[in-house]
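Hey,

Quick one before I head out. I ran the complex with adenosine-5'-triphosphate overnight. Inputs first:
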Amino acid sequence: MTVGVLERPGVGFAGASAPRAGDPLASALVREPVLSIDGLSVCTGDVDLVIDVSLQVVPGETLCLVGESGCGKSLTCLAAMGLLAEPVRRRSGSVRLQGQELTGLGEKQLRQVRGREMAMIFQDPTASLNPVQRVGHQVAEALVVHGQLSRRAAMRRAVELLDRVGIADPAARAAAYPHQLSGGMCQRVMIAMALACRPRLIIADEATTALDVTTQSQILKLMKTLQQETGTAMIFVTHDLSVVAEIADRVAVMYSGRIVETGPVDAIFENPGHPYTRGLMDCRLHALSATAGRLATITGTVPRPAARPGGCAFRPRCPKAAERCETLPLPQGFAPRQTVACHFPGRAR
Ligand SMILES: Nc1ncnc2c1ncn2[C@@H]1O[C@H](COP(=O)(O)OP(=O)(O)OP(=O)(O)O)[C@@H](O)[C@H]1O
Ligand code: SF4
Ligand SMILES: [Mg+2]
């Protein structure tokens, strides 16, 4: 297998080709973004954890946010949701949902936006579900809190939603407590909760990571189907590139707090511009390939934010590093709709 062979038959999008009608990528050119993050920086004390991140996602589009552990994926999502907790705080930048600036809103206003307009699904459903409340009530609660339905109607709708996310015998399961359900079922409940108010945006942070491969695949398909039905935009955080290949329309790659590459999923897999993205692709092929020795893995680890080197933070691990890399590379166009922050993008230097 060579770099660029996608396990994603029938997509075949080349970075330089025109987007197709009905394609979320096409809508990226014509539709207003659901979420627009501009120049977002997050810090603790004087240490920057997320730096100058800008991202957009349009209706019906899935943006996958990838990168090794500690790159700042979760903090970016939490900042977008207004869920950062002291001592971590937003240093600067703007977060707009459907054009509305969220960064100045108080907790009460934010709580109204969360759930109704945007919802987040976390990796560990048991941490997010209330252990002493029946799951049906928890789904119904979201509908009642956002004033959409009476309690009775909300309960009926909750059972419908549990059915919709593939929970067998939903009326009986609605009466169960989280500990009486499997991890996969709890995750389905979380998805039902996230979908309850038909939000414009869902942020899923490693939402399927803890699940076995079969359940994960079922849940990804389910999320994609529901998303296509509702036109919800999705940010999907994962370190699993097989998941990216299955679900993404666009990809944003993070390294040490910054976005280092963005582009359509096929372009990212077939023609990664940043040495870090290329390294991630090689690592994946290394794991998949029977002739693993031919492909390099990325040596070293992501620097701690307090020990991040100046200039390009990937420099100590980069096979192409040169003197020029001691200055920070800014994002630049690499291919159509593909942006790379590197002084020497592409395969050769
Ligand atoms: N509460 C906190 N206080 C101090 N540093 C933090 C805090 N939360 C996160 N960090 C640091 O910020 C950086 C980014 O963390 P974040 O959780 O966003 O990474 P991530 O990309 O989501 O990683 P993972 O893939 O492991 O979930 C890391 O270096 C992390 O140690
Ligand atoms: S700027 Fe230099 S060190 Fe950074 S990724 Fe590009 S080549 Fe490597
Ligand atoms: Mg995380």
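The longest helix spans residues 213-230.

Talk tomorrow,
K.
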